[in-house]
Design goal:
heterodimer, A: alpha/beta, 4-stranded mixed beta sheet, about 15% strand, globular, B: alpha/beta, 5-stranded mixed beta sheet, 28 helices, 38 strands, about 20% strand
Chain lengths: ~575, ~950
């Protein structure tokens, strides 16, 4: 029997390491026949730690395994029947989460051991690179062109076009760079791929390097992903030892070295020219384009930069043909896309679906809808650079053009789901706060413009909004988009513009009525105790950190608004829903 | 060879080399695209976003600094979208810009006279320049300096330290200086415009308009009802405050420039507005406010009751009888003070001032009140006249209601409230009512009026309701104000009227400047220096005559007082590109007002000052330091809005590789990085650029001296010179000696006399001839500084051979030691080669002298061998300082004690001596580009003078010299 413990960052955070040690100890003492292995994240982060049991009867998937409930598993391993696993087995509903997906980039994630190249080879790994180097580079590019693969980092630029541009650029020395500087809050697709299936990234890069004609590649990965860095390094070492990375790959005469470059966690370094500056050892600040990296890139040489997910798709395309990939998706957007669903959704995690699925399908069907019986209000796509789409547009299909038309973007795959308790102004402020801080400071529109937008949003959520602020926000947003140097500034106002577009009434309520409809903005709400509902249990008064609540036992309590710091503690502890927000 | 490609920019067809950017192309065809962060000396950066343009067929704004031109490209540079984006960038920058574009004193001046500028010039002893600067706006500095209530001083931030700078007194000092030291500068007559302008009213406003309009070439006629020009300055200000002689002297240039004065003609009585309009292309109404405000109390019509300004006018006309009378003056303003003090001087028996509130609330100047008290004026506070009592039809006294102070009014002054039943009677036989003044509109009935019955004149165009009729000063809008306000309006109006006469609709717009708030603690470190005091005549001596009470500053006091200026206004005002663009595009600092970064300023080695609040992060300093100098002392630190320019880890600049070449400051588009020159008041002024050669070493780098008057404000690399070393940039402290067409010559008896240069030349020749003729067999040699130009060195060799008959030419040359580095700032070899780009060893260096001209090395012990040494390029005060060009004749002893030295440069516009920061003295000179001989020619001339024949060209004898 084989036991696989899901040990991506999410699994480890949920306690998979401890579970692994318990199992290791148990197997060491009791059974030599059981092999214990690890895998990366399978995407169901909400169910971690996850353990896959490969039994004679097939796969048994155990979820939310912890020290308290692992006894059932140990009993099963000691010979009990499957009923001892009943509390641990994945429910049919949760199992749908995977069943409704189409996994290409994530095809091996959570299934194979990322630290064993043998697992990858067994899954057909490195066949694509062997196949590719037997073809003329032009044919490889043609296959990618056929697939319709576009940049998964967010911009959606056709991958073949970039490869061809880099290939045609003059010069002997060229560079290939993998952008693994995943910086969007709420996005972890790249991390999951590197942690769960690093070889597919390496293989994708090798194919690209061959197609472009370069022999030196970098993976620019953020230092905040230590596990990913470690597994990638292990994978690189193994691939080198196996002859897939290095000199004369597969006897073809093609050579390629891949090095890891750790980034220090600046959001702007996800912008390709800033990333290049960073690899060169400079401050991460975008360069002017033109010239584009395909002409003048790293160290002044032609360079091609693709995102992790883009590369992870490449081996599959080479093996299964471009047309197989292109068979999935819409007219303008081919293949699949990975999303990291987070926020108020029931099932949060990684989802890979074919292009053309609707937002509603992803959020309601795969994500299982909203937690705590609340209403779905909106979804933020593309992180701080993206936009906010209201629930009323759930039928919007996932397609580069269709998403753009809403004011949002496809983005790298961040999908933050919001319910009715989310204030859209505060939400826009949150993202602006992020981009304003992450602006590299180079260009005026981004450096000062985002700061000014943030200040306006600050005063609106603080109840100090002025007449004309919405117009000011819109006008300045458009100027910042048009005047900024790189994608960070060009897209930073998107959350503001889309929330104004779809939730203008919320802005107006804040500014004109000094009211936050979602009851989120502290300056615009007050807490009161409904005397009819209050039983005088005194719990709230005891929990209040500033002693703002008074009242006799078994009599209705009251909140002193002067003292109240709106920490929400009373409302959270009240068992009778007597604490209300106005 | 790259090919030519064609593009279109704003309909202009433009042909450029392949690889050129849109910005290059636009510049090549004369289309201006603004940019703050681009400079050809460094790589493209693209930060400021000002250079955006639109390309036909593209939806995006493109940055012209980085976009290469492609064949057939069509660019538009001035679409509404482009202009809006540029303006937004500027307004965002302004919203985070901390500083004062202009000093608060200047902004407080209703006329906007450049107080900081003229005060600073006085501190630098540039008195004439100071007066000229004032006169750019204000034609009467000596008069206004005496009488102005100086709102500038009220705004002066020195008050936060101890007391404001005595700006008005300094203005008077400069005004007097130019009157008495350069009274008559013949003005160059402007080209006549053929237009005629009438000015109605010869007061400060009218005369100012006349002056500036006349200077623009228009034919001006001033009508005035009084016998002489000057208006209220003459008839409203007593002689003891403003001597008529000073006023006359300041009005005289207006007549001299050709303005026609017509006195004794009153509009409405002697001539109509229509008649004046018919004879002129434009009319300026500046009739002032000549009517005393009435109190509207019983008895005001009695004989002996007179308005304050009426009284003063009568005194000026010599028609007032005051002697022996008891005078009561009603009012607490400056006119009341003028009236009471004038009454004292005219021999009044007693003089009372009646004022409703207390002394604290009096609007008059404090010193006026004090001086009136000293002169025996009796003040009756909290007294309100309610009736003038009469004896028959003449005044007998005033019935006064006693008052107390109540609640403050809207203006913050406590309101006087009558005390019920408390009255007092003051005996008086003359009552002067000085509570205000208003205008009378006789003859101006056809002009539209305001609700105050003043002439309605548009604030930005100065137009009235009648075409071609403009109006300024007390007669308009808000009514009576101080003289400088009328002058300011007139100066602005004269520009608008000039434009009108030339067919343009230009109007005056208030420029929007960045301002900052300061507090006393900001100046906690400033050393307290008390305000210089000026002499006031003793009360006993002054009260019986009309001699001027306040005497002018002495020169030393004026310099000391001016040196107290805190230099609030931005030093970069005249060069700041941010301000320049902002004014042109009418960008407002308020559009996106928000929080600002910290605005601390750091000085480094007292040579460079970095002001964070003014930095726009264009990155030019960072790039020039890294790319041109290879040093990278500066970088961008931090992220987002808080990003600043600083050395890494924000350490002091001294700990970096900075060599103080000042290149960062030279490229800075704002006042964020500035050179500091110790020993000179840094004054933002329109500087005069003079190109010359640095005399710091033999590399002879091109320098641009920036003069304000005769003071060198800064030294910059001349156009074409990539950068200067610290010696060139900061190697002097700009203590500048006076210039001129004279030279100092030491006579045989040891006295130094000044002679004109051409005479000096002759004197040198004569002296040399004399020595040749004394019959002794002399050993002669020429000693030259290696710091002279190649041409000059060649001429010196010719001089030796043909004038002195010797082949012996020496220099103190030592090629191995280039003299570089101010304040011992070490330069690495790589930096040296970058700075001098190889030229150092190629120019008229030691190497050149030795190898090309055969000049030998001179040692002091060699001096024993010669009894005559002509030292060319040496300096009289030190054995061997680096210096500019002089010829020194040293008879018998080649030591410091020379007989004659003259600057050979033929009286160029800008030569001078200044002190280096190490204390040595140096001369600078301009390269004579104008007509006239250069130094090399002067040496040749001197040689020809001695030899008595023309000299051959150097090339012909080059070989011969070398063979010797």
């Amino acid at each position: 029997m084989k036991i696989i413990v899901g040990e991506g960052s999410c699994g480890l955070a949920a306690g998979a390491g401890k579970i692994h040690r318990i199992l290791e100890k148990y197997i060491g003492q009791n059974s030599e026949d059981i092999s214990l292995g690890v895998a990366g994240c399978i995407g169901m982060c909400f169910l971690e730690p996850i353990i896959d049991l490969y039994t004679e009867n097939g796969l048994l998937r155990l979820v939310k395994v912890n020290e308290d409930n692992i006894g059932g598993l140990l009993r099963y391993l000691s010979g009990s029947d499957e009923s001892s696993l009943s509390d641990l087995l994945i429910s049919a509903g949760d199992a749908e989460f995977l069943e409704k997906q189409t996994r290409i980039a994530l095809r091996n994630c959570g299934l194979i051991n990322p630290e064993h190249i043998e697992d990858y080879l067994a899954a057909g790994g490195y066949q694509a690179v062997v196949k590719a180097v037997s073809l003329p580079p032009e044919d490889v590019i043609a296959e990618i062109k056929m697939s319709g693969l576009a940049g998964r980092g967010g911009a959606g630029f056709p991958t073949w076009f970039k490869w061809e541009a880099a290939r045609k650029s003059s010069g002997d020395e060229k560079y290939l760079i993998c952008n693994a500087d995943e910086g969007d809050p709420g996005a972890f697709m790249d991390r999951a791929v590197i942690e769960g299936d690093p070889h597919s990234l390496i293989e994708g890069m090798l194919v690209a390097a061959y197609a472009i004609g370069c022999s030196k590649a970098y993976v620019y990965v953020r230092a905040e992903y230590p596990l990913a860095v470690k597994r990638l390094q292990t994978a690189l070492d193994q691939a080198s030892a196996a002859g897939f990375v290095g000199k004369n790959i597969s006897g073809s005469g093609f050579s390629c070295e891949i090095a890891i470059k750790q980034g220090a966690g600046a959001f702007v370094c996800g912008e390709e020219t800033a990333l290049i500056e960073s690899i060169e050892g400079h401050r991460g600040m975008p360069r002017l384009k033109p010239p584009y990296p395909a002409q003048v890139g790293l160290w002044g040489k032609p360079s091609n930069i693709n995102n992790v997910e883009t590369f992870a798709n490449v081996p599959w395309i080479i093996q299964n043909s471009g047309s197989a990939f292109a068979a999935l998706g819409t007219a303008g957007s081919k293949g699949t896309k990975v999303f990291a669903i987070t926020g108020k959704v029931k099932r949060g995690g990684l989802v890979e679906i074919p292009m053309g699925s609707t937002l509603g399908e992803v959020i309601m069907d795969i994500g299982g809808g909203i937690r705590d019986g609340k209403r779905w209000k909106a979804v933020q796509l593309g992180g701080p650079s993206g936009g906010c789409i209201p629930a009323s547009m759930a039928d919007t299909v996932i397609d580069y053009a269709a998403l753009c038309a809403t004011g949002a973007i496809m983005g790298s795959g961040g999908m933050v789901v919001m319910d009715e308790s989310t204030c859209m102004v505060a939400m826009a402020r949150f993202f602006l706060d992020f981009t304003a801080k992450e602006s590299c400071g180079k260009c005026v529109h981004c450096r000062i413009g985002t700061k000014r937008l943030l200040e306006i949003l600050d005063r609106i959520v603080a109840g100090q909004g002025r007449q004309g602020d919405i117009d000011l926000l819109e006008n300045l947003s458009l100027e910042v988009k048009a005047g900024s140097l790189c994608g960070l500034g060009q897209s930073a106002p998107n959350p503001v513009l889309t929330t104004i577009r779809y939730f203008r009434d919320e802005y107006e309520a804040h500014i004109q009525e000094k009211r936050c409809p979602a009851h989120e903005c502290k300056a615009l709400i007050s807490y009161r105790i409904n005397p009819l509902a209050c039983t005088g249990c005194t719990l709230c008064a005891r929990k209040c950190p500033v002693s703002a609540i008074t009242g006799k036992v078994k009599e209705a309590h009251t909140i002193d608004e002067q003292k109240c710091i709106k920490c929400d503690r009373c409302r959270q502890v009240c068992k009778f829903s007597a604490v209300e927000i106005f | 060879m790259s090919k030519w490609i064609q593009c279109t920019i704003d309909t202009v067809k433009c042909k450029v080399r392949d690889g050129a950017t849109v910005l290059d192309a636009a510049r090549a065809c004369g289309i201006e695209i603004p940019t703050l962060c681009h400079d050809g000396r460094v790589d493209v950066f693209g930060a400021c976003g000002l250079c955006v343009v639109e390309q036909i067929g593209s939806t995006k704004l493109i940055r012209s600094c980085s976009t290469p031109v492609t064949e057939g490209m069509e660019i538009v540079t001035d679409t509404p979208r482009v202009l809006s984006s540029r303006k937004c960038a500027l307004e965002l920058l302004l919203s985070d810009h901390t500083g004062d574009c202009r000093a608060p004193c200047m902004l407080a001046c209703p006329a906007g006279t450049d107080c900081q500028g003229y005060v600073g010039l006085i501190a630098n002893r540039e008195y004439l320049e100071s007066a000229r600067l004032i006169k750019k706006i204000l034609p009467f500095p000596a008069s206004i300096g005496r009488v102005c209530p100086h709102p500038c001083e009220t705004a002066c931030r020195r008050a936060l330290v101890e007391q404001p700078v005595a700006i008005a007194a300094l203005k008077r000092f400069a005004g007097d200086y130019i009157l008495f030291n350069q009274p008559d500068t013949p003005a160059i007559p402007p080209p006549p415009s053929g237009k005629r302008v009438a000015v109605i009213g010869g007061g400060p406003g009218g005369l100012t308009a006349a002056w500036f309009l006349a200077k623009s070439g228009h034919k001006i006629r001033v009508y005035d009802m009084m016998p002489q020009m000057g208006g209220m300055l003459r008839y409203g200000i007593p002689e003891y405050r403003l001597p008529k002689k000073i006023l006359d002297m300041e009005i005289e240039p207006i007549r001299k420039i050709g303005v026609e004065f017509i006195n004794g003609v009153k509009i409405g009585a002697d001539i109509t507005l229509e008649e004046i309009r018919n004879g002129h292309d434009a009319v300026v109404v500046a009739t002032g406010a000549w009517q005393s405000t009435k109190m509207n109390i019983p008895g005001e019509e009695l004989q002996g009751v007179i308005g304050g300004i009426d009284f003063l006018r009568n005194v000026a006309l010599g028609t007032s009888e005051v002697e022996g009378r008891r005078v009561a003056v009603c009012g607490g303003g400056n006119t009341a003070m003028d009236a009471c003090r004038t009454a004292v001087r005219l021999g009044a028996k007693e003089v009372h001032v009646i004022y409703r509130r207390t002394r604290k609330e009096m609007p008059a100047e404090e010193n006026e009140i004090e001086e009136a008290e000293e002169e025996g004026v009796v003040f009756r506070f909290l007294s309100n006249p309610v009736e003038v009592k009469g004896n028959a039809d003449t005044v007998a006294g005033l019935q006064l209601q006693k008052m107390k102070l109540g609640e403050p009014d809207a203006g913050g002054r406590r309101r006087p409230v009558p005390i019920d039943g408390a009255y007092e009677f003051l005996e008086a036989d003359m009552v002067i009512i000085a509570i205000g003044q208003s205008n009378e509109n006789t003859g101006l009935e056809t002009l539209e009026k305001t609700k105050y019955n003043t002439i309605a004149a548009d604030a930005s165009s100065f137009r009235t309701s009648l075409p071609g009729v403009f109006a300024v000063g007390d007669a308009t809008n808000a009514g009576a104000d101080i003289a400088i306000a009328a002058i300011g309006e007139a100066e602005k109006a004269s520009k608008v009227i000039d434009a009108y006469l030339r067919g343009s609709q230009a109007v005056y717009r208030e420029p929007q400047y960045v301002k900052r708030s300061v507090y006393a603690q900001d100046y906690a470190d400033v050393e307290k220096v008390p305000r210089s005091s000026y002499q006031v005549a003793e009360p006993e001596s002054r009260k019986s005559c009309f001699d001027e009470v306040v005497s002018a500053f002495t020169e030393a006091d004026a310099v000391a007082e001016a040196s107290r200026c805190l230099e609030c206004g931005c030093q970069d005002f005249f060069e700041c590109k941010l301000l320049n663009y902002s004014l042109r595009m009418e960008a407002s600092p308020e559009s996106y007002a928000g929080s600002k970064r910290s605005a601390q300023s750091v000085r480094s080695r007292e040579l460079l000052e970095y002001n964070e609040g003014k930095c726009i992060l264009c990155g030019l300093c960072v790039r020039v330091c890294a790319q041109q100098l290879g040093i990278s002392a500066l970088g961008l630190v931090g992220r987002g809005f808080e990003t600043v320019i600083a050395p890494e880890f924000r350490r002091p600049l001294d700990t970096t590789g900075c060599i103080y070449c000042g290149q960062c400051a030279a490229l800075c588009p704002t006042g964020a990085l500035r050179e500091v020159y110790p020993g000179v008041k840094n004054v933002p002024l329109e500087e005069e650029a003079v190109h010359s050669v640095c005399d710091g070493c033999a590399a002879l780098c091109g320098v641009e001296y920036r003069f304000a008057g005769k003071t060198v404000n800064r030294v910059l690399p001349a156009p074409g010179t990539p950068a200067l070393c610290p010696q060139g940039r900061f190697g002097f402290s700009a203590e500048l000696a006076k210039l001129g067409a004279t030279a100092a010559v030491k006579t045989a008896d040891g006295n130094i006399i000044e002679i004109r240069t051409e005479n000096a030349l002759k004197a040198v020749a004569d002296r040399l001839k004399g020595m040749s003729a004394d019959g002794r067999d002399r050993q002669r040699a020429v000693l030259i500084s290696e710091r002279i130009t190649a041409q000059e060195a060649r001429a010196a060799v010719l001089f030796a051979r043909f004038a002195l008959g010797t082949q012996r030419v020496y220099a103190f040359a030592d090629c191995s030691k280039p003299l570089i580095g101010a304040q011992n700032i070490p330069l690495r070899e790589e930096t040296v080669s970058r700075l001098f780009s190889g030229a150092f060893y190629e120019s008229a260096s030691c190497w050149f002298l030795r190898e090309k001209l055969g000049v030998g090395r001179f040692r002091l012990e060699d001096a024993e061998r010669f009894d005559t040494v002509v030292f060319i390029g040496g300096h009289p005060d030190a054995p061997y300082p680096p210096c500019s060009f002089k010829a020194v004749l040293a008879a018998d002893r080649p030591d410091n004690d020379f007989d004659i030295f003259i600057p050979l440069c033929p009286a160029p516009a800008k030569d001078g001596v200044f002190l280096r920061s190490d204390g040595s003295q140096a001369m600078m000179r301009s390269i004579p580009t104008l007509a006239g001989p250069d130094n090399a020619q002067v040496i040749r001339k001197l040689a020809e003078c001695l030899a008595g024949r023309p000299l051959p060209e150097f090339d012909d004898i080059d070989k011969a010299v070398l063979e010797n």
